[in-house]
TrEMBL record:
Gene3D superfamilies: NAD(P)-binding Rossmann-like Domain (3.40.50.720). The keyword DNA damage does not apply. InterPro entries: DECR2-like, NAD(P)-bd_dom_sf, SDR_fam. GO terms for molecular function: 2,4-dienoyl-CoA reductase (NADPH) activity. The lineage of its organism: Bacteria, Bacillati, Bacillota, Bacilli, Bacillales. GO terms for biological process: bile acid metabolic process; fatty acid catabolic process. This is 2,4-dienoyl-CoA reductase. Keywords: Coiled coil, NADP, Oxidoreductase.
Amino acid sequence: MKGQTIIVTGGSSGMGKAMASRFAQAGAQVVITGRTQEKLKEAQQEIETFEGQIVTVQMDVRQPQDAVRMVQEAVDAFGRIDALVNNAAGNFLCAAEDLSVNGWNAVINIVLNGTFYCSQAVGKHWIAAGAKGSILNMVATYAWDAGPGVIHSASAKAGVLAMTRTLAVEWGHKYGIRVNAIAPGMIERTGGAERLLASPDAAEELKQSIPLHRFGTPEEIAGLAAFLLSPDAAYINGACYTMDGGQSLHQTFL
Ligand code: HXC
């Protein structure tokens, strides 16, 4: 990844920070974005211990003008963009009948709209520069499997999966831009695990229902992300890789 510039939205914690660290270890120039300056700076200090260079962009993916600024700051810092990881997400467990309009909009705006704003801003930069790049989106298996309490997130992630496939076809055909997705299961040390697991007992019960009897790690997700952005994945386009220890196949496991 030497010489490559990779933007990771929501890069100051969880899977985003693990991906940014992995890319920096592989020699990449990394741009991490997030809403909180303090968290960004902490992550920057941690990632700076690796080989690659890192800059931070404080922004909210819900604001289209922030996405445009993100691209400008990445180009100002490193002169090029090679990949975008749309990792920023928002989620909380809430029964569909209790979800407020603001709650619905908050998650749809972060996950679905934010992914589009960032993808379009980076895509327009590549198209204008005659450059090629790669986009990686984070979805969730409940986008197609379903699950209670996540109607906002599942609807948004299903949209992101449709966006992944649509852009893979449209921008792949016209510009050679690759767009892929990862569907993580429950990953330890992430905002998702914090928000979606009601208690330690619920976590233990869930682990027992997963064929591998454990949650995934942010580092394992980072390894798959690094592969999907590497030359070894040059012919992978429009794909969605599930990494959930076999959880979504549990009916065949029992
Ligand atoms: C019901 C809730 C709520 C909850 C917020 N809301 N939390 N409603 N139950 N637990 C409602 C609020 O009451 C408000 O509506 C509206 O949502 C917006 O809330 P705010 O706090 O004002 O929004 P904001 O500060 O913008 O925060 C957005 C957020 C927050 C999504 C609510 O959780 C956040 O910033 N999350 C970012 C990190 C994150 O969620 N990471 C996990 C991603 S995991 P009202 O009507 O009261 O105004 C993931 C995939 C996991 O996505 C897959 C695992 C398998």
